[in-house]
Design a protein that fits this description.
- 67% of the residues lie in helices and 0% in strands.
- By secondary structure, the protein is mostly helical.
- The N and C termini lie far apart (34 Å).
């Protein structure tokens, strides 16, 4: 570690215990990372937070790229084989 590196840990289960505040950037970004975010919630997050909109756009581009999808599927299959 160096003096210029700072690590912060977020206990996600504890985050789910607090009321969501769309004005808090941390709350918005953690909501974006949740697997069960609804399309309506995602639209609201993208309206409020430019970084989330850019991340979602990039994820959509990657999902539409056949080479990236094939690499991802190969990685998932490799992880499954090596687990067992």
């Amino acid at each position: 570690m160096t003096d210029s590196l700072e690590l912060h840990y977020i206990e996600c289960p504890k985050f789910q215990e607090v009321d969501f505040n769309i004005d808090d950037p941390l709350h918005r970004r953690l909501r974006f990372l949740e697997q069960d975010v609804t399309p309506e919630q995602l639209q609201e997050l993208m309206k409020v937070d430019e970084m989330i909109r850019e991340a979602e756009d990039r994820l959509n581009q990657l999902a539409g790229d056949e080479v990236t999808r094939r690499i991802d599927l190969q990685r998932i299959e490799s992880l499954r084989r090596n687990r067992g």
